[in-house]
Design goal:
two-stranded antiparallel ribbon
Length: about 90
């Protein structure tokens, strides 16, 4: 899986969600083990204005907090693409 280029997961045991952000943040796909669905979700992400990483991390934490798997280890990985601008 492309996500595995930067994060190693064992699909079937580990579940992955994709959260995107720019000026806003949203869940592209919730926690799943479906590799094809994850790749398709990544392909749907479009660039936008801003880099509100704080909103992206808050959305990611909300996805993890909503998981019914108590006691499961939870990990958030963040990747930012784009050109930084100083304003």
């Amino acid at each position: 899986m492309r996500v595995g280029e930067s994060v190693t997961v064992t699909l079937g045991r580990d579940r992955v969600a994709i959260v995107a952000f720019h000026s806003e943040a949203w869940t592209v796909i919730g926690l799943t083990v479906d590799e094809a669905a994850l790749d398709a979700a990544i392909d749907r992400i479009e660039p936008g204005p801003g880099t509100r990483m704080d909103r992206g991390l808050a959305e990611a934490l909300a996805v993890l907090d909503a998981s019914p798997r108590s006691g499961a280890a939870k990990l958030t990985a963040c990747s930012v693409l784009g050109t930084p601008r100083l304003e």
